[in-house]
Structures are given as structure tokens and as C-alpha cells.
Amino acid sequence: MNRLMVFGIICENKTKVSLLYATHTISINGFTSHVNIEVEYINESQHKTEAKFVFPVEEDSAVYKFEAKIGDVHLVAKSKDKDVAKKEYKQAVDKGQSAILLRETSTSGDIFEYSLGNIPANEKIHLQICLVSELSCEVDGAVKFHMPFVLNPRYGLKPADENYQNAPKPKEFSFNASVNWNSQIKDIKSEHPVRVDYQDNKCHATVRMAKEFNFEKDLLLQVYYEDVEKPQVILEKGDENSKGMFSKDIMMINVFPELPQVKQSAAKKQKEKSICFGRDRNS
Hints:
This protein has 283 residues and is mainly beta. Helix content is 6%, strand content 48%. The protein is built from two helices and 20 strands. The strands form five sheets. Strands 7-6-10-4-3-14-17-16 form an eight-stranded mixed beta sheet, with no helix packed on it. A four-stranded antiparallel beta sheet has the order 2-5-9-8. InterPro entries: VIT.
């Protein structure tokens, strides 16, 4: 039988850790989204503890930033070989230092697990996670944004030796999203009561919660754009202070090809069809 897996912070030895606040800031630009999540906990026990922060990530999403602040210690995650990262994390914890280790869970590729070592007694833990996602377009033309919330439980196998507790609700919670499009934004819908304000001739919109958020459901926004079927180009400027790929500009092109209906015989219909997409790279 599957047991209940809880997202959020999971501590050893039933250490009490309270969730003080959670903020979610989303920027939707056409068919891409940037998500910035910040949560703050406090270790209310009288001793150091080690914890895990379990977080769901959508299939078409990528984590590009994770930072933690434990007391006065600021930790920034960097990509390293798995075995090297584990070794460095263990060495830091054995020395009594605060440390973080990010990895995918062994049971699911869409769930990330952040190990937090040596959280001091009565100390706050501030976590920041940044994600980028490619958004899908539904049959009715809606561009769908879906975000599993950190606080929601999820059904799935969990290790027998872990101390999973009910996910706490934050004492403070804030959510705001901005939506940008080259043409007009026709409508924005959600299962949650939201307030949508349009600006710039409906080319820009802000979304906020109209009522207290229901943590029993993930957030789903359906954005309807004008001229969604027309080719669109989205340019993401690189970071001048970074090196390698992150310093380069990135362009995303969205094309909805029109494929005319062709009458075919029954025999031809049985054959697989292939579509070739050509690209001219001349500048």
C-alpha cells in the first residue's frame, strides 16, 4: 500500500519545526514561466537537528537556483558530481557546519530532496528555490501553468525510517503572478478564486488570490492569449556576470503549423506520417 508522502521540511527525532511564511512569485512570459519560492522555518527545539526539504518539480521544469540561509550562514547550491557532493556534505556536517545537499529522490524523478545539516537550536531557516518551465498549450488554446505547492501531501512510497509529519500551514502566505504577451490577454482562469488586473491594453496582467488560499489543491492557471497560433519569439537575456551557457542570450520560437487536410485512401491512412521541420540558419 502506498503511504502518504509530505512535502516541506522533514526533521529527525520528531524535532518541531514551524513554517513561518511562504511566498510564491511567478512570471509568465508567453510559453515560459519563472517561479521564485521562498519559505522560512524555525527550529523550535533546544538542540541542533538535521532535516530534509522535499519539493515537487513539474516534468517540464528545471531548478536553476537554490539558496539557504541558516542563521547567519548563507549557502548557495552548485552543480557537482553526485559522489563528490555527498562526500563534501558529510564532511561539513561532521565538522558541525551547516550544509545543504540537493538531489532527486530515488522513487520519483519529479521530486527533489534537499538535505539540511546542523540547523542550530531556535534558529530560522530561509530557503529560496527558482524554477523555469516550458508551458503547454491545450486543445482549447489555453496556456496551462501548474505548480505543485510545497505544502501539499502526495501519495507515494516513503522510507520506513523517515519521520513524516503532517505538512504545516504557514502563518503568513503571499502569492502574486505577472503575465506578459505580445498581443492581448483574453482571459485568465483558475480553480482558486483569483483577482486579475490588466494593464497596457491587456498585454500585461497581475494575478493575486481573492480569498484565503486552499492548500488542499495545487495551483492551476489557464491563460488565454490573443493570436496564440501565430509564430512568437521570446528572448531571454544572458547574465553578464555568469560564465558559459548562462552568459548567453537564449531565444525561444513557438510555431503552430497549419496542416491542410489531405484526402487519402484507407491503405495510406494506415501508414505512419512524418513531418519535417526546416530551419534557415542564415543571419
